[in-house]
Amino acid sequence: MATQDTISASAINGSALSLRNRRIAKHIGIFLALIILWEIGSRIGWLDPLFYPRPSNILRSFWLIYVANANVWFHLYATMSLVLLGWILGSVLGIGLGALVGFNAVLRRFLKPYVIVLEATPRIAVAPLLIAALGFGVSSKLAIIMLVCFFAPFINTLSGVMNVDEDRLELFRSMRASKSQILRKLVLPDAIPVIMAGERLALTAALSGALVAEFIQRDKGIGSLILVYTRNLNMSSAFACIFTLTILGFLIFKGMEKLDHYIAYWKHEDGRERMSLKRRRKIGGHSDV
Amino acid sequence: MSDRPLPLSFRAIDLGIRILPHLIIFAILIGIWEVAMAMGLITSIMIPRPSAIGGSIVELYITEGTIYRHFFITLTEAVLGFLIGASIAVSLAVCSSLSDPFRRYVTPYAIVLNVTPGIALTPVIIAWFGYGMGSKIALAAIISFFPIFVNTLTGLVQVDEDREELFKSLGAGNTQIFRKLRVPAALPLMFAGFKIGLTTALIGAVVAEFAQATDGVGVLMSRFSFQLNMAASLATLLSMTLIGLLLFYSMEFLDDRIVFWRREGRRAAASRARSKAWAAQARK
Fold it and tell me: Beta-carbon neighbour count of residue B248 at 10 Å?
């Protein structure tokens, strides 16, 4: 009986795996077909290669900007260092102010109209103003990134701190929980996942903000690189930069997911397991677990 | 009927009482700013006086009225871009919800489009669509696509199993299930997506105007900024806030009318209207 079970399980497993493999193969097939169609269309003359670069040229540009000329690294570093710094500063500001406003009802009431107005304004639109006020260079870029990524953590902290389950609050109070206990054991566990969601939005916004600042300043950074390549009608290199940003965006997405699983571990299965393992080790000293 | 709205005059007085302290605080803040500037506590050409901003607002919006042309151009760009992006997003999402293979083959590309900062495409889009309104509309459409796609797809796919069971056991066809079950379940999420999409469409239009344009509030803004005319620049920023508010609240209004069953008051109003219509029909 047992052997039969294991056999059927492995068979199911195997068929699921092969189904998965077949699907992935189909995805890759369709992708390659599209690329080849693009390449052929460009070579026959359906697509103007000046504006719609050939896949082969984009690959060559990847080689050029990463290895042969290796000029993309400098710009990537210039952009990403500012994005990360601005993101950290902006979210510290956002979370701090959000908590302040979330805990203080009077402040909340009087800040609400300003928050609504700020929410409706496209915040990237302030970029030229900040550049004019702070001058070209790092400080204005940093200010733009901070401004752009301040808002999501602010709003999410605000709503995370405020949306406390009334019944649970009642329970905590009736058990005579102190204020700090309510904060640590009730408010924060519910608020931190929401704040982390805001952080993810903020990091994406920070990258966009940096790009806009670089489009306007045109000194260094991946945004100005894209702009310069496009102006020179070197579209294949511009596309190589854009696909670099796609990869970067994907890494940001994955990185934030990892960070979320690490910080808000109680919301995710694997995080809970990791934490319980860690605690068990600390408490019991089971080295074999 | 306790849920009948109060007479208009009462509501106006109530609103006035609630707004008054806000207005007073706003006036005090502006007053402190103005006095500090006048006394020379803050000296910077980068920080304009409130009175100068007020003067610029009067000039731009009333005496010269230069803002309106740019205002409507940006508004048109954002709305057209949103409409194009939303129609593509909704149709793709509907197709994906109806067919599993289609969904499998479309989602990876949608995700790639999502993780790429849409703003990065600005120079390329301008090279493709030219310096006119076309490039702004295209960028707005691309940027607003993803939130609408994801929300519509999520809304259409997540359906209460029990309800679907009920529909099937009552012999509902696929079309009926789609129209009466899936679409109503999806609409609230769709509207949430529309609101995000509309905001991002405005961002797309404005950013494309920064990069290259001749008309629009984005251009006006960067022109004033680089002339160091901060007062006029802030006055222009106000127009973007106005566009944002206008777009957001018109979408909120549509949300209220179309997804009427979510809000108590609107549901009551809709049921009143229907019972009146039925009564009128019965009388005939």
Answer: 17
| Alpha-carbon span B54 to B49, nearest angstrom | 9
* pLDDT of A12 higher than 60: no
Domain shared by B95 and B166, yes or no: yes
User: Does B241 contact A at CB distance below 8 Å?
Assistant: yes
ipTM of the complex model = 0.82
* Spatial distance between the Cα atoms of B56 and B60, rounded to a whole number of angstroms: 6
Range in A10-24, A223-237, A246-260, B187-201 the model is least confident about: A10-24
> Smallest CA–CA separation between A226 and chain B, in Å?
7
The domain that holds B220 is classified in CATH as: 1.10.3720.10
Residue B130 in any domain: the answer is: yes
Confidence label for A5 from pLDDT (cuts 50, 70 and 90): very low
Residue carrying the six token digits 């999520």 = B154
Which single residue is written with the structure tokens 């920080």?
A: B47
Relative orientation angle of helices A138-162 and A105-120, to the nearest 10 degrees: 130
What is residue B197's DSSP assignment? H
Same domain, yes or no, for B26 and B64? no
Residue B5 structural domain: 1-43
pLDDT of residue A6: 47
Task: Please state the rounded mean pLDDT for residues B6-18.
Answer: 74
Place of tokens 């929980």: A177
Q: CB within 8 A of A41, min separation 6: which ones? A: A47
Residue type, A148: V
| Same structural domain, B15 and B39 | yes
Mean pLDDT of chain B: 87
**What is the count of structural domains for chain B?**
2
List the Cα angle A187/A191/A195 in 5-degree steps: 155
Q: Under CATH, which number does the domain A68-284 receive?
A: 1.10.3720.10
Q: Shortest CB distance from B120 goes to which of A27, A129, A211?
A: A211
**Percent of residues, chain B, with pLDDT higher than 70:** 97
Cα distance from B181 to chain A (closest Cα, Å)? 30
Confidence of residue B5 (pLDDT cuts 50, 70, 90): low
- Say how far apart CA A199 and CA A194 lie, in whole Å: 9
Contact A129 B199 (CB under 8 A): no
**How many other C-beta atoms lie within 10 A of the C-beta of residue A271?**
16
- Inform me whether the pLDDT recorded for A256 exceeds 70: yes
